[in-house]
Design goal:
The structure holds two protein chains of two kinds. Chain A is an alpha/beta fold. Chain A is built from eleven helices and ten strands. Chain A has a six-stranded mixed sheet, sandwiched between helices. In chain B, helix 2 packs antiparallel against helix 3, helix 2 runs parallel beside helix 10 and helix 4 packs antiparallel against helix 6. The chains are: A alpha/beta, B mainly alpha.
Chain lengths: ~290, ~250
């Protein structure tokens, strides 16, 4: 059967960027994000994750190479950037850097009003975005009375209200406790189910392995590897070279496969979570 | 923070800020037109009563909020009670300074004090029943220049961001004995100010980038809140304001 290749939404081709102080931001970085996928960008601090995100939103302009959105090179004219920023929403790591109105509703309305939408549409979008992140009850609260996790959700709502196709989140789980992470994860799952493409930076390799469809490794401003998440065990060397650990579940699976007598069949691919591993072990016991 | 708590927790939180502003304006005018101190004080008492019984602001909180400005007012009135007189002394042989007590009697002090208390009560009524974000929205409707509104929005938001930064930095300094002795405290305060200066610059840049990422190209635009029954509230507030002014005039 002739299967159609997934559509590329965002593509970086050999992109180079150097900051005015001489620091390298991106150094021949190439990667592809397909429409509707969940992507993790993994790399050490200073590897170039934030720089890449700011290129995706048109905040920075590459000094070399090309960035394409939906097959077209990014248009850096005022109108072109307006279109791009409506399509690619960027959520910053620190919510206090992004929220500058004291009112939740006002802040969420900021983006859609900048798109030139009429008040009724903006009001509708603000309500929908706040509902999507479970913050509609907090619409009239002042931002400074919210918890860190709630502020993060308001930041996401502020971008969602612009109805982007691609949502880029810079370390969304940083600073969140377990419960807040689970809440945020539920929000991201919901957004993915609606067809929004997700690209997020994270240091949590276990989470990236469990949740994403594709992992992109970035080191020293270059994309060191890009692979489908289930194939991660075959890219263990690339992970180590990028200074990242191997997911615990992959290590455990490898050890169990080497057990004598065999606990898990050698031809079964590595599970993505503890739950999947327990199921595998139970299946082994039953058979 | 007390004002913030009252503004967000009072019963009239959802009432149109225009209505509350109109009533507060009525209180101001009543204080201004009151010819007798007791008339101004009555207007002040009525406004306070409405804040406490109507909006449900606890009297103890209202009093605590009012105490600092009342202290300043007392100091101001005391300065009116004294007068320095050089002329009386110069008629004699030497240059002597005469201090006169109540040169014009109690009347100007009581009149000024009464009016100021009336105006203070009206202002506090607005402050404890209306969050600043609602007031800014009201000022936007009243066509205050955009640049002033943007400054207000950013200053109000940054007030909380920086108070958190100050608290964190001070705690970190105190944990390393930064305030163990006056000499250390002075140095710590200096480094705190220097650190905040850099933070302000970085924060301003970060906000600019964040605004750009959401398509901002100049003025900061926000959605204006909507209030149910705004017309009815405005009519009631207007009536209340007229009654207040009427009482102040009758008692004068």
């Amino acid at each position: 059967m002739n299967q159609q290749a997934p559509e590329t939404l965002l593509e970086f081709a050999d992109v180079t960027f150097r900051y005015p102080d001489g620091n390298i931001g991106l150094n021949g970085c190439s990667l592809r994000i397909t429409r509707g996928s969940r992507n993790a960008l993994i790399g050490a601090n200073g590897a170039g994750k934030t720089t890449l995100f700011q290129h995706a939103n048109g905040l920075l302009r590459p000094q070399g190479g090309t960035i394409r959105y939906a097959g077209q090179p990014i248009d850096y004219s005022r109108a072109g950037l307006r279109r791009l920023r409506g399509e690619v929403g960027l959520v910053f790591q620190n919510p206090d850097q992004q929220l500058f109105s004291a009112s939740v509703r006002e802040d969420v309305s900021f983006g859609p009003l900048n798109l030139g939408l009429d008040t009724d549409t903006v009001r509708q979008r603000v309500g929908a975005a706040l509902r999507a992140v479970g913050m509609d009850k907090f619409a009239d609260r002042p931002v400074h009375n919210l918890s860190f996790g709630q502020k993060k959700r308001v930041c996401i709502a502020g971008v969602l209200a612009m109805e982007p196709q691609l949502l880029v989140l810079d370390e969304p789980m940083a600073g969140l406790d377990y419960a807040m992470r689970q809440e945020l994860l539920a929000v991201l799952d919901d957004l993915h189910a609606r067809g929004i493409t997700l690209l997020l930076a994270t240091h949590d390799i276990d989470f990236a392995y469990r949740w994403t469809d594709r992992i992109h490794l970035i080191a020293a401003g270059a994309c060191a590897a890009s692979f489908a998440t289930p194939d991660l065990p075959q890219h263990a060397d690339a992970l180590t070279a990028a200074g990242m650990p191997i997911p615990g579940i992959v290590e455990l699976h490898r050890m169990l496969r080497q057990q004598e007598p065999a606990v898990i069949a050698a031809d079964i691919p590595a599970p993505r979570s503890i739950g999947e591993l327990i199921t595998l072990l139970n299946q082994g016991k039953d058979s | 923070m007390l004002i913030e708590q009252c503004a967000y927790s009072n019963r009239w939180r959802a009432v149109s800020p225009a209505a509350k502003g109109l009533f507060a304006l009525g209180g101001f005018v009543a204080a201004f037109v009151a010819g007798q101190p007791q008339a101004a004080m009555t207007a002040a008492g009525l406004v306070t009563l409405i804040a406490v019984t109507g909006a449900g602001v606890p009297l103890s909180r209202f009093t605590r909020i009012a105490l600092p400005p009342l202290g300043f007012l007392l100091l101001g009135c005391l300065s009116l009670a004294f007068s320095l007189d050089w002329s009386a002394a110069s008629q004699g042989h030497g240059q002597e300074l005469a201090v006169r007590w109540l040169p014009d009697g109690w009347t100007p002090i009581l009149t000024l004090g009464g009016r100021s208390i009336g105006a203070l009560a009206a202002l506090l009524f607005l402050a404890v029943t209306t969050p600043l974000i609602d007031l800014i929205a009201l000022l936007r409707r009243l066509r205050l220049p955009e640049v002033l509104l943007e400054l207000m929005v950013l200053c109000y938001r940054m007030l909380f961001v920086f108070s958190e930064a100050v608290r964190d930095t001070r705690t970190a300094q105190a944990a390393r004995l930064g305030y163990a002795a006056p000499r250390f405290a002075l140095r710590s305060l200096g480094s705190l100010a220097a650190n905040l200066t850099v933070q302000i610059w970085q924060r301003a840049h970060a906000l600019h980038v964040a605004a750009q990422s959401r398509n901002n190209d100049g003025p900061l635009r926000f959605l204006e809140p909507e209030y149910a029954n705004a017309g009815r509230d405005l009519a009631l507030a207007g009536t209340g304001a007229v009654v207040l002014i009427g009482i102040a005039l009758v008692l004068s």
